[in-house]
């Protein structure tokens, strides 16, 4: 089989890159990582040379290129059906896809007001009113799935659905957005995952600063 190459951007800021990277790493899937920083005002030309959208993440598998976080996770789940990226149960797979798509397309108020930033010291900021609705909906998703599965991850074992919400865990923590015990417990579970720790360690020593993401 041709090797998998995952192109990503800055680990400190790139929520979209974090998702497939954590999914593949957490599932034990072997891949080569290529980091192309977005530290150019007009966009890094190296990204545009690789990606048809001019953005990352992008997975290259032989001549095939797959972009968008969820598409990458789904593709690798098909390549490695025993890796646990999708639940085995049909109903749970449908739920995992539903909440992953909701994360992919929704929660714009939260994402806009609170950029992911691994290095940011914890502290509150002034927030638009509509962020509260996003926070409440995400907590409901987590609570319902954890109650159904028994935890510690959304579908029991770690899966691609957890990886899709990984940047939210960082946002909830660094902007001090949540206080419910079950939410905090799930966040601690995610932050203790070896894949999370590996990403965080690398993010903290990156040299790049992106001013617009330093809220």
Automatic annotation (TrEMBL):
Protein name: Glutathione S-transferase family protein
UniProt source species: Rhizobium brockwellii
Domain of life, source organism: Bacteria
CDD domains from the UniProt entry: GST_C_3, GST_N_1
InterPro entries xrefs: Glutathione-S-Trfase_C_sf, Glutathione_S-Trfase, Glutathione_S-Trfase_N, Thioredoxin-like_sf
Domain GST N-terminal positions: 2-84
